[in-house]
Specification:
The structure is a homodimer of 271-residue chains. Chain A is α+β, with helices and mostly antiparallel strands. Chain A folds into 3 domains: 97 residues, Chitinase A, domain 3, CATH 3.10.50; 45 residues, Thrombin, subunit H (Beta Barrel); 77 residues, Alpha-Beta Plaits. The termini of chain A are far apart. In chain A, strands 1, 2, 3, 4 and 9 form a 5-stranded antiparallel β-sheet that branches. In chain A, strands 5-8-7-6 form a 4-stranded antiparallel β-sheet. A 3-stranded mixed β-sheet of chain A has the order 10-11-12, with helices on one face. Chain A contains 6 helices and 12 strands. Chain A is globular and about 70 Å long. In chain A, a hairpin with a 5-residue loop joins strand 1 and strand 2.
């Protein structure tokens, strides 16, 4: 086997429904575009998978060790190992009037939310609509084409990939790592300071590093702010002016600050 | 003058309307309780004011240098130096029906939002309601009783107070400071990791430190995660089990993680 459990692989994949040939998922931007489900803001690139971690469907995970670099492998997955069989009990007829009352205008083949569950509109006619509460891929045999693009070998490369998995919006490698034997310092780049969910991502990165590199006992995240270089120190005699200037030249994020800016009731909009 | 511009003071204050004697603002929990406007979760404690920074009404700011420690001073503020005169143009009659259409049931003396502005209900009768768009304290003479409780003298104490001002929910002094001549390392306590707005607060703390201590050229925030001590390193042969255990013993915050946890379409709810 070219690969083994615990290996860090970057994987490309494209998945389709066997019966129809319809592609429903891909890591490749060109495929997403040509199939018409490309989403702006979505990141298309090979994804990190650690073999045996259960990050992907089990059949896929089991097949990863036998991949060869850059050689696509086709893996067929029967419904019972994918999204389960299609359950006829999960079909339900409702009146068109009832849907309309809920503000839903049904359209054949589309998904709607009904009673807080997702349903697909299967048939329509004579004022009645058939809702299918099965997952859209239930009962389908899936065909994955999977390619291992790269095997990560260094601890540093693996940690970078783990960070990127938790903060996909940030280009890989933007954190600077100071790796020692039993600790690591992760220098957070300024452009990541205001990414939503940063603190949760840090927790996730920590969990990942502790899991895959148990020798690392201490993980430190460091965020550095340097004094703006060309500004003069504020003068005592012109406090207000200097303050205004300093504020206006700063790229202040729009979110509400935690602190009350004006204690002693100035916040109440005095003249 | 006991104090001067740039001094860091911890100030207690209680403010009332001169004409009625009604207290509308205080830093003291006992006063807030006895006046009936105590709010759960609000932090009642002396507040940091740096003299001359404009953090409080100008008349108050101008009076701060003449305070003496622990001696309350009464300061009267005329309407023009507080919330401005009351403007009769800002009174408006609307029909009760119109308010009802907007889902508002008016009650004498209460504040409502109307056309995205705050208004006080002044009179009601014969199907008509008078709305007052003046700030509630417009036209009022205010009487502040202000007490300087403490003057902060050390750079460390001042930085702690600036941090507390930006993250009032966190007890003062919880950050650990490594202060050098031209840089400071701020060690964020674990209990602050998931405080909402932490990143914005860091930016604010940075701005404050750069303003008041221009000699400090570099500010670093450090968040440290230590490996859990009593857990064994995960064994290769029982990956799943170990993982489950590690996860369950961890206090995971409830917010949605940034990363997709299940790439390769496992997120689509497979069986």
């Amino acid at each position: 086997m070219p690969f083994k459990e615990g290996d860090f692989l970057l994987i490309e994949h494209t998945a389709k429904v066997k019966e129809t040939g319809k592609i429903f998922d891909t890591t490749r931007e060109d495929v997403a575009r040509s199939e018409g489900f490309h989403k702006e803001g979505e990141i298309y690139e090979p994804k990190l998978v650690v073999i045996g971690e259960g990050w992907v469907l089990k059949v896929l995970d089991d097949n990863l060790p036998s991949l060869s670099l850059n050689k696509p492998k086709t893996i067929e997955i029967s419904p019972d190992k994918a999204f389960g069989p299609r359950d006829p009990e999960k079909l339900r007829m409702v009146s068109l009037r009832r849907l309309r009352e809920k503000g839903i205008t049904p359209k054949l083949g589309t998904q709607i939310e009904y009673d807080e569950k997702l349903a697909t509109i299967r048939t329509m006619g004579a004022g009645r609509v058939q809702l299918d509460f099965n997952p859209p891929l239930a009962g389908k045999t899936l065909v994955y084409e999977v390619t291992a693009k790269k095997k990560l070998r260094t601890q540093e490369g693996k940690i970078h990939a783990l960070i990127h998995r938790r903060i996909p919006l940030l280009e890989i490698g933007k954190f600077k790592l100071d790796l020692e034997k039993d600790d690591v310092v992760l220098r957070v780049p300024e452009e990541a300071f205001y990414i939503e969910g940063l603190q949760i991502a840090k927790r996730g990165i920590t969990t990942d590093i502790q899991r895959f590199f148990p020798a690392i006992k201490k993980i430190e995240f460091v965020e550095t702010y340097l004094a703006p270089k060309k500004e003069k120190a504020p003068k005592k005699t012109s406090t207000k002016k200097t303050k205004a200037k300093r504020t206006s030249t700063k790229k202040t994020p729009k979110k509400k600050p935690v602190a009350k800016k004006k204690p002693l009731s100035k916040a109440q909009n005095p003249k």
